[in-house]
Design brief:
Elements: H1 11-15, H2 19-28, H3 37-45, H4 50-72, H5 80-102, H6 114-128, H7 133-141, H8 153-161, H9 167-177, H10 189-213, E1 218-222, E2 241-245, E3 252-260, H11 264-268, E4 270-274, H12 275-283, E5 288-293, E6 298-302, E7 314-316, E8 322-328, H13 335-350
Parallel strand pairs: 3-5
Antiparallel strand pairs: 1-2, 2-3, 4-8, 5-6, 7-8
């Protein structure tokens, strides 16, 4: 059993630190590092279930000492082995509860593992696009709460990404994921929520950049089932975004967004697109799919012409045996080229048909 107690500096000691040091402490604890120094100090001093934590530490200490005493002389009395085993299991259970209260991580976010790497790639991607992860969270999710709860979205998302969910946040997530367990495909519910939030990031990033990069000629709205950024049990039958001309909103296209967080498609030489997105392209509900290679900060566009309708989709183990179609990834482009091409697609859709076409 590993017990690590890190003493928290007092409020006075924190106040003597500079802003960079306070920001670093916030990052280490999975807290947002934005704001001035007094705000950072208050954030670091915020209690986390302090009474319950004190009680849990007391119980854990008693169990640990009792177990140690019994282990010293268990050789003299074999029946004590069962008692020691039970006490040890109880100790481990209380230790798990302690770590839940403190917000210690439970999923694969350690260095060089998949969720750690996804977050590191996300942080680098934001820096490559002249912002930071924390600034992006604050600007896009502000301080609003999830529906029917007091859980603040910015805090929850930050804690989730850094594997520091608190007890009440774990309970909130568990309650909202009960009807979605069949979609987790072997992932812990926090891992599943992590991937959902990454999907929100990719859609919100494209939405923001469409207007910014086009100098306001284009605008964009979220239209998917989770457009309000809530954890829902419904699967989306609609595309993610609608992009339209600011001067004439009726001229628009609908797109899906696919984010490759580990550069897998580029490394394998093909992109595996899920059946839902493929079918929306085929039946015309989606005009195109925008794929983002987060690791290399490059983009791809797929439309109906990219799909070979005679090709049969095959179950993909990486997606829980969901059918996927393999697409070529040779024609990557920059963000500016992406937005320019999207604008061209919208303008072409707005152009009247030629006499030959008629």
């Amino acid at each position: 059993m590993r017990l690590i107690i890190r003493p928290m500096p007092s409020k006075g000691e924190l106040s003597e630190l500079g802003k960079p040091a306070l920001q670093q402490m916030c990052r280490e604890r999975g807290l947002s590092p934005t704001g001035n120094s007094p705000e950072l100090v208050e954030r670091l001093c915020e209690p986390i279930d302090s009474i319950e934590l004190q009680k849990t530490k007391l119980v854990l200490t008693i169990l640990s000492i009792t177990t140690l005493i019994l282990m010293i002389d268990w050789m003299e009395d074999e029946p004590k082995v069962l008692c020691i085993s039970l006490l040890w299991m109880a100790t481990m259970f209380v230790d798990r509860h302690w770590r839940d209260i403190e917000g210690t991580g439970v999923f694969r976010s350690r260095k060089h593992e998949i969720y750690w790497q996804k977050r590191k790639n996300l942080e680098q991607f934001m820096e490559n696009n002249e912002t930071t992860l924390f600034k992006f969270i604050d600007e896009n999710y502000q301080k609003e709460s999830f529906d029917d709860s007091e859980i603040i979205k910015t805090d929850f998302i930050t804690h989730l990404l850094f594997d520091k969910l608190r007890a009440e946040e774990r309970k909130f997530l568990s309650n909202h994921m009960r009807r979605s367990l069949h979609r987790t495909t072997g992932r812990h519910i926090q891992e599943y929520a992590f991937d959902i939030v990454l999907g929100w990031f990719s859609e919100d990033f494209v939405k923001n950049k469409v207007k910014e990069t086009s100098d306001g000629r284009l605008d964009c709205e979220l239209i998917g089932v989770d457009r309000n950024r809530e954890f829902t049990s419904s699967s989306s039958a609609e595309p993610d975004l609608e992009i339209f001309q600011s001067a004439n909103p009726s001229n628009s296209i609908r797109i899906d967004v696919f984010a490759d967080w580990l550069g897998t498609a580029r490394k394998q030489g093909h992109l595996n697109l899920k059946s839902g997105k493929v079918n929306r392209l085929i039946d015309g509900r989606t005009d195109c799919v925008v794929a983002i290679d987060i690791e290399s900060n490059t983009y791809l566009i797929f439309d109906k012409n990219s799909i070979d309708e005679d090709e049969e989709m095959t179950p993909n183990e990486e997606y829980g045996n969901t059918p996927t179609m393999s697409l070529n990834v040779d024609n990557s482009m920059s963000l500016d080229e992406l937005i320019s091409q999207l604008e061209t697609i919208i303008n072409m859709a707005d152009s009247p048909p030629s006499q030959e076409e008629e």
